[in-house]
Amino acid sequence: MSALTLMSVMLASSASAKEKQPILTGTRSALTQSNSLFGPTGLMTVPTAYTADPGQVAFGTSFGDGVRVPSINYGLIRYVEVGGGFVDRDNGRNRFIGNAKVTIIPQNFGNFEVGIGVIDALDAINQTAYFVGSVDLTPPNWDPTGRVGSPIALKAHAGVGTGIFQERIFGGAELLFPNQYSLIGEYDSENFNFGVRYVHDDRFRAQFGVQNKSIFFNTTSILQF
After folding, report:
1. Distance between CA 92 and CA 214 in Å, rounded?
2. How many other CB atoms are found less than 10 A from the CB of residue 21?
3. Which of 1, 106, 118, 211 would you call most buried, defined as having the most Cβ atoms within 10 angstroms of its Cβ?
């Protein structure tokens, strides 16, 4: 079964099942919702299990190791995002890619989410199907303002994918601090990358770091409809 067929089945089943569930957001805040390099909601280059909120449009611009990608994500329905990007490569032809992801929250596990997605669904460059889990290790008394409660929070992510992930494991973590900052570390199945994420408000966030010994920069702008 191709990645595109897999995602078509997942989107159809999610549309009927997810609408019946209450929203379980945990601490899924602006600090955890940014476009990754190729578009899906994620860290720097790897996706997480999280998706754009319903009616939310996320415009991303990423500058990575030999590649530049403007991207867009749309929260189609609850726990389902679709989007795409234009991949401008130094050593390859430039292509448009299409992405999609479905989030599943297992029953009785409100702090654990699973994402099933596809990057480059039409195989313009390197069709990639992936499966990723995200766990929220945030203390119950975490306060994003830093005034009371725990001063830090942690989210961890791990998955496996084909295509750009070479049928290997990828993953990462976010260490959330008060006052709109977080530290990010990730393994993209080949390299370790790290950076800092800053969230100005609910509409804009930026990342700066190192990807495969090269400078990485990313911004995400949010519109809510």
Report:
1. 18
2. 11
3. 118
Question: Quick check: helix, strand or coil at residue 36?
Answer: coil
CB within 8 A of 121, min separation 6: which ones? Answer: 3, 4, 7, 97, 98, 99, 100, 127
Residue carrying the six token digits 């569930």: 21
Backbone torsions φ then ψ of 73, nearest 5 degrees: -125, 145
Q: What is the architecture of the domain spanning 3-224?
A: Beta Barrel (2.40)
Nearest to 29 by CA among 216, 205, 194, 207: 205
CA dihedral 91, 94, 98, 103 (to 10 degrees): 30
pLDDT digit of tens for each residue in the chain (225 aa)?
A: 455 454 554 444 444 434 433 333 444 555 678 999 999 999 999 999 999 999 999 999 999 999 999 999 999 999 999 999 999 999 889 999 999 999 998 766 778 999 999 999 999 999 999 999 999 887 777 666 666 666 788 999 999 999 999 999 999 999 988 768 899 999 999 999 999 999 888 889 999 999 999 999 999 999 988
The shares of helix, strand and coil residues in the chain, as percent rounded to the nearest 5, are 10, 50, 35
Closest by CA to 131, choosing from 218, 212, 40, 70, is 40
